[in-house]
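Fold this complex.
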Amino acid sequence: MKLPARFAAIPASLSITLALVAAISSTSLHAENLDASVMKSMPKLEQLYTHLHQNPELSYQEKNTSARMAKELTQLGFEVTDNFGGYGVVGIFKNGAGPVVMIRADIDGLPIIEQTGKSYASKVTTVDEHNNTVGIMHGCGHDIHMTSFIGAAEQLIKHKSDWKGTLMMVAQPAEEVGGGAKAMIKEGLFSKFPTPDSVIGLHVNAGIPAGKVGVVSGYALANVDSVDITIKGKGGHGAYPHLTIDPVVIAARTVLALQTIPSREVSPLEPNVVTVGSIHGGSKHNIISNEVKLQLTLRSYNPEVREQQIAAIKRITKGIAISAGLPDELMPEVYVHQDETIPSTYNEPQLAAKVQASIETELGKNNVVIAPPVMAGEDFGLYGRTEQNIPITLFWLGGVNPEQYQASLDSGEALPSLHSSKFAPDYPLTIRTGVRAMTRTAMDLFNQ
Ligand SMILES: [Zn+2]
Ligand SMILES: [Zn+2]
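Structure:
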């Protein structure tokens, strides 16, 4: 999925600080169990969820979603800066001397026509850059993230007598295109606001039942790179191949040779993927074309493996072109989309262990699973890769209706994945669990 970089058109100077509003009365958690407290907020949170679900906005276009996040945080009493790094929102709540804990939620939807059949399904459509009408859907569950985020903010304010420190709530746009975290950091997220001592986030998971949480220590999500390769040749008549240098044949060799990067070049102990997702060349049966274009996605965890993949692609494509007899001026071009590069998410092990312990206290040990790392990408990883070297942890929030989960285990039929038009999390239980897990984690990080 590619979207035009409309972010550039948003003036950077729109940041405003909204009035601080002292909103809700404070109670101690000793007097009230957290789950009971969250339950009281559920009707309001469910309303917020269905509103967000029915009004999704694409990456770089999250104007109304961002405004709603700013409004919710302002009402809770946060000092709010909006339109920060695009449609980013930062809410600061200072509650005495203590650690700075940042909680992040992403806010963008995806160009998908929703097919869940739910009464609250999104019916929003838009016109893309090719003039096609596309649907918009929160197919990655960012509506769950936002609702859990507001729910946790509310609980932490409500129980502010139980902790000391600075709570930093960050609603981040444009996650799906890998642009939002980058833009907010570049705008000065860690210099214009207090520098966090830890950054936590959650992502809904389409393979874990609602009510449970998954924690990964160390690498959790992958480095992602998009690479274009243009393979050149000398075109001509399909009946006279000896008078040409056929780029289709070179491309075929190249695609196969690239498979040796993960299988023969990178250590078998370093997970990595080289996928050629697109190959285009030629126009007709009997014409040998002048070029073939390949589009690749690369995945890895270790930053050195990422460098190794890119270097190997450059070397292999060039070597095959030379072996085909192409002159210097017809060497292949390898273009790495640096603007779309996402580094891996490394859950700092000490912080991940604390997050796990907190969530186990809140939900019970049997509701916390040790999740495997995945090769998907998340720009959350960037918050841990700045010069401040801040420990980060993103945990998985189970989203599958427990009965559907069991039925899928029984039948062997796969559940709809994230980004599927049929992905419909069991939102009341998922949100309630997300708020509890996030609130308890933040509170423990303040009190450690
Ligand atoms: Zn996504
Ligand atoms: Zn997502």
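The chain is about 30% helix and 25% strand.
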